[in-house]
Amino acid sequence: MLVSLTVGKVDAGVAVLLTEDKRLIEFPSILLPPDISSGSIVDITVSHNFDSEAATQKAFSALQSEIYTTFGTQAPAAPVLRCRNATQTSVVLEWDPIQLAAAELRSLSLYRNGSKAGNIPRPHEQQSTKISGLAVDQEYVFHLVLKTSAGTYTSEKLHVHTHKMTDLSGITVTPGIMPASLRESLETAVQRIGAKLVDTVRIDTTHFVCMEGRGQAWEKAVELNIPVVRPEWVEGCEREGRLVGVRGYYLNADPRMRQFGQVQQQQHDDRPSSQASSQRTVPIQQQAQHHPQQPSESRPSRSSPQRPSVEPAPSEASDEPKATTNGTHAEPTSTPNTPAPSLPPKDTPPTATATEAPSDSSDSSEDPDEDDEEEDETHENGDATPRATANATAAPVAKKAPVRDEPTPRAETTETGEGFSEVSL
Q1: Residue in 143, 132, 50 with CA at minimum distance from that of residue 86
Q2: Which residue, among 93, 101, 156, 138, has the nearest Cα to 120 in the 3D structure?
Q3: What pLDDT shows up at residue 44?
Q4: Strands of the 24-28 sheet, one edge to the other
Q5: CA-CA distance, 137 to 9, in Å (whole number)?
Q6: pLDDT at 380
Q7: Do the strands 207-209 and 228-229 form a parallel or antiparallel pair, or are they unpaired?
Q8: Which among 172, 147, 144, 169 has a CA at the least distance from the CA of 158?
Q9: What is the C-alpha separation between 235 and 410, in angstroms, rounded?
Q10: Which terminal CB of the chain, N or C, has fewer other CB atoms within 10 Å?
Q11: φ, ψ for residue 71 (rounded to 5)?
Q12: Which pLDDT belongs to residue 286?
C-alpha cells in the first residue's frame, strides 16, 4: 500500500505530515530522507509482516507458560517432622529442608502437646532441635507450623515416648582422649548395655567419656553442655542395670560421691538398727557416769587365786579423834579379828564420824592392785598398824571421852520435832 504525504513542518525529532484530506500525522524525522523540507511530498509504503508477528506471538506464549509453571503449579510444602533420638528426659527432633517455592518465609514454630514451645532460629540452615527437661516414661506430641506469604502449613503430629530408667537404648556416647585398651573396653561395655557409640560430638550425644579434659571434641562437648564423665560411669550403668547419675563420675569428682542403688538401699535399711542400738547404749553409759555406785555398809570380799583381797585398814581414821554430838572426842579402837558389836544403846545419840573410810574402801575395792601395793609398802616400812580383814563388816564403836573445855571442834544438834536430830559440824 502506497501513501503520499506532504511535509508540513520539520523539527529536530518530529516532522508533521499532511494527508490529502488535510489530517496531521506526526512522523519521526529520522525516517525521512535528509533533504526533506516543508512542502516536500513523500511516498510511504505500508505492508503486513506476518513472519515477525508469528515469532513475537510464540515468544510471548513461552513467557506465559514459564510464569505459570513457576508460580502456578508449585506451592510451599508442609514440613516433615521425625524423631532422631529419645532418652529418659530429652528428645532430638529433625525435619527435611523446608520448601517455600515462590513464597516468602514468615516463621517456623514447634508445638508440644498443643502448646507453642518456641520458634526455630534460622529455618533455612537448621533442620534439628533438642528438647530437654522432659518427664521420665511419658508420652509427648510434637508438630511444626510453617507460615509463609502463600499460607500456613502444618506438619503431621509426632508421638514420642521417653524411656524408662532401665532403658539405655537412647544413650549416645562419644569417646574422648583415653588409652587404646580402655577405649576397646568402653566400646564393649556400651554394646552390652544397648547404647550407641559415635566418633564425633553431635546434637544427639548424651555423654562425653574421656580421661583428660582437652581436645576439640571436649571443647565442643562443653560448649553444648554435654556431661563429661569418666569410663567408670558406663560400668556403673551396667552394674546397676539402669541410668545412674553423673555427679560422682565427673573428671574432678570425688569417687566417694558415687552411690549405688543396692548398696545404698542396704545401708539405708541397716542404719535405723545401728542408730537405735547406739541410742540404747549411750544413755546407759551416761547413767553410769552420772550415778556412780554407792558404797554399801558390807561389801563382799574379792578373792583371787594368788592372794586374798583386803579392805583398807582403819589406821588412817584411828590417828584422828572422832567427834560425837556432844562435842567430845573418842579414843580410837581397833578390833581386826573380832566382829563389830551390835547396835549401840537407844539412849546413845547418833555419832557423826568424820573419817574417809568409806571412800577408801570404795577406792580399794575398785582397784585391788593398788591395795596390794599399799599392803606391800606397809610390810616393807614396818608399819605395825593392823589392817581390817574381810570379816569386818562395820566400823568400831567409839567410846565416850571426858568432856573438854575447848569449844572446837563441836557438833551442834537441832531438834526436828519427831524424835530425830540433825547434826551439823
Answers
A1: 132
A2: 93
A3: 86
A4: 24-28, 14-18, 2-10, 41-45
A5: 96
A6: 45
A7: parallel
A8: 144
A9: 87
A10: N
A11: -110, -10
A12: 41
Contact (Cβ atoms closer than 8 angstroms) between residue 344 and residue 400: no
Q: Tell me the HSE value of 275 on the side-chain side, using a 13 A CA sphere.
A: 6
Phi/psi at 217 (5° precision): -65, -40
Cβ neighbour number for residue 93 with a 10 Å cutoff: 23
pTM of the predicted structure, to 2 decimals: 0.50
Cell numbers for 15, please give them: 516532522
The reported pLDDT for the residue numbered 357 is 39
Asked if residue 168 lies in contact with residue 194, where contact means CB atoms within 8 angstroms, the answer is yes
Per-10-residue mean pLDDT, the chain, length 425? 85 88 87 86 88 94 89 87 95 94 92 95 93 95 95 95 95 94 94 94 95 93 94 94 92 78 45 41 39 43 45 43 41 45 47 42 44 47 42 46 50 44 42
Give me the residues paired with residue 172 across strands: 196
Place of cell 564403836: 397
CA torsion sign, 124 to 125 to 128 to 134?
negative
CA atoms of 408 and 425, how far apart (whole Å): 10
d(CA 312, CA 355) in angstroms, rounded, equals 13
Task: Give residue 284's pLDDT.
Answer: 34
**What is the four-CA torsion angle of 279, 280, 286, 291, rounded to 10 degrees?**
160
Cell of 78: 508442609
Can you spell out the DSSP letters for 181-242? Answer: HHHHHHHHHHHHHT-EE-SS--TT--EEE-SSS-SHHHHHHHHTT--EE-THHHHHHHHHTS
Note the pLDDT of residue 311. 47
8 A C-beta contact, residue 115 and residue 145: no
Q: Phi, psi (5° rounding) for residue 172?
A: -120, 115
| DSSP summary character for residue 339 | P
- Look at residue 415 in the predicted model and tell me its pLDDT: 46
409 preceded by a cis bond (ω within 30 of 0): yes
Helix (H) / strand (E) element for 289: namely: helix 261-290
The confidence score (pLDDT) of residue 154 equals 96
